[in-house]
Amino acid sequence: MHMFKVATLYKFVPLDNLIALQQKLQSICQALTGTLLIASEGINGTIAGLPDLLDKAMAEIEAMPSFDNLWYQYSQATHKPFGRLKIRIKKEIITMHQPKPLSMSLRGRHVVAADWNNRLDQAAVVIDVRNNYEYRLGSFKGAINPETTYFSQFPSFVETHLKPYKDQPIAMFCTGGIRCEKASAYMLANGFKEIYQLSGGILQYLAHTAEDASRWQGECFVFDERISLGHGLKKGSALLCYGCRMPLKKEDLDDDYKPGLRCKFCSKDK
Question: Which listed residue (174, 180, 220, 263) is catalytic?
């Protein structure tokens, strides 16, 4: 059995000539699978392949002047986590649909995994910046769920729920950190004063925090065939409904449920 190596990566950096960049990344990553999004604001995505091929591609990407200090987190998969390679040009690498581009020089203060538990205790409020279906699988105890379906709904949540905390310390987290980068930029541009974000996101925390010292509860949804990861970035137990694409926990499943069948969430939509 082949073991596949997976790299989750991002960087906010001004980019131009995106078509040429798309072609270059296509060439560099031709032996890999996964998705990379590029836009004038930067790069974001997850790619996977055999370890030596992924390491070679990552070295070439990092050697590009725009992508020095690229953030990335490695994990493993026992099966190929993506069907094919997609390099896409987008308007935003994280879609927020704001009328004016955000200044990404405004970002929350990064907190490394080793210091995150203390920050959770000191924050006036802790926000899970991910979407509702991700929150369902797991989160930090006491974190607020914005109940969004799309990240572009997060600004509305800020306006309706977080104004009382404008002058208080706010801690935020997401899967790999990129959504917090943009969320904190939005909040700082709108008068919030003290925002902290989990550096490298949940993936970094699960990779570097012992389970007996962890504040994380449940599993972390990932956007590939593994579906969810647990401590040590080991594959979790979640399944994915083929009908509604909802990630499913064990307690969501009837005794006779089998992968490929529709789940209880599908029936709610009928």
Answer: 174
